[in-house]
Structure formats: structure tokens, C-alpha cells
Amino acid sequence: TSDDSGMYECRASNDPDRNHLSKSPKVKWIRSQANIFVIEHIRSHVSFESGKLVLSCNMSVSHLAIEGHEWVHGDKTLQTDTESTTFTSYTIEGKMEEHSGVYECVYKTSPMIKGQVNISVPPQVMAYKKSEHGNEGDTGVLTCKNPSFPPVITWAWYKNGQEAIVNGSGRYIIKSGDNKTELRILKLNTEEDAGDYHCNATNSFGLGSATVNLRVRSRLAALWPFLGIVAEVLVLVTIIFIYEKRRKPDEVLDDDDGGSAPLKSNASNHKDKNVRQRNAN
């Protein structure tokens, strides 16, 4: 009550015999004065009406002057005012699942007084990627996270709805925290490891889950594009070679290959004929 406030004295000593009934303490008590303040009780409440969340704080009759209020979420100030009332509220448009977390109502008094309002929901689990790809023989990494409040208490992984995957069993390694879990699969196998993996999360308000599809590519998968390019180049070179071969003209036979001597001119033939006639006469 207000009658309890005032000046008090506190004292301290690190002497082990400070409270001994017969021995005198080796070290004297160190004394100091302290002020005591009555901290008012703050009642918090969350209501959901017409698509809106209403967060409220109501403080018992204060013996301290209130100069205003603030609403804080993390390191962000959401709302501030200069009203001196013991009641303050903050309205959020949207669903609880979209705005879960810890909110504080701050009363501007001396000293400052804070109240806490929690918006708590079951885990809103999300897959970092809904579909993951890995090469045969490599390590596959599947990740799920939970951005909601309160934090996850237990994470669990399942493959194709079957039994839970145990950390450290076979080729599986699981690393989990409050809001994130990671499944590593060593030496991926195309036949054994491809499929759907389910990450389940549990907190004090319920259960949430997400699914990640894993595809495993063969070792030769990266070789097929290269082989395709090589085949295209070979076909192109063959077509060019055939085209050039067909358009090349036939070679002319050389004179040494049975060709006849060139014919004489008409004038030369006529002259030879006259010479033969004179000789005959």
C-alpha cells in the first residue's frame, strides 16, 4: 500500500561468520539506503472482433503521475500518446496468426511501468523452399521455420507420412532450434531419398506442419546438356561438308589422259592441199 513507501536501509557482507551468534564478524556490514515504490498491477487482455485484434492494458489506481502511454513490439514503437488514463489499448487489423508475438504497454511514469500482452497461436510452420533439388552423392538440406509465438517446443521430421526420422540414424542429421529446424541427408540416392518430407512443430498452443518435396538428380544429369551440344555440332559439320562436296565442279581431264592434238586452222589446211596437188603434177 501507499503507507509502505518511504526510505529503507539495506546492508551486505561477504564474511561467512556475519550471522554467527558468538563470533564477531571480520568484515563490517556495508549499509546503504534504498527507496521502495509500490508497483501497480496491470491486467492485460486480447480480443478479436470484426477482423481486428484489440490489445488492452488496465492498471490499478496509480499513485504515480501518468504522462502518457506507448505500445512497443520488439524494438519498434507502434503507438504513443500523452493521455493520463490507467487504461490504454492498441488495435491491429488482421488475424491472430499474422500478428503473434509479445507486445508491451508502457506507462510513462517515474519510474516507468510496463505491462505485457501476448498474442499466442499454434506454430505457423513454413518451408524455406517447397521444392528442393540435389545431385546424387551430395548432401541434401531441407529447412522449415516458425515465425510465430510462442516458440516451438518439439520438432519432428517424417518421410512420405511414415515413421519419424530419428536424428543420427542412417544418413539423417537433424538440427533444431526454437523457430527453425534443418534436416540433412548425406550421400543422396535417386531411388531412396526422393519424395515428400514433412516437418511437424508443437508448442503449448497446438501443432503445425509443412511439406518439402525433394528431387534427386542422377550423376549424369549435368552431362546430358554437354552431350546434346556436341551432337548438334557434329550434325552441323556433317551438313556443311556434304553441301560443299556437292557444289564443287568436276575436274577437267589433263592432256596426258588421251586428249587429241589441237586442230589446224582452215587457211593452213587449204595451203597444204595446194602443195600436194603441185607435187602430183
UniProtKB/TrEMBL annotation:
Segments crossing the lipid bilayer: 222-243
GO cellular component: axon; basolateral plasma membrane; endoplasmic reticulum membrane
Pfam families xrefs: Ig_3
Coiled coil: none
This protein's UniProt keywords: Cell membrane, Disulfide bond, Endoplasmic reticulum, Glycoprotein, Immunoglobulin domain, Membrane, Receptor, Transmembrane, Transmembrane helix
Disordered, as annotated region: 1-22, 251-281
Protein name: Basigin
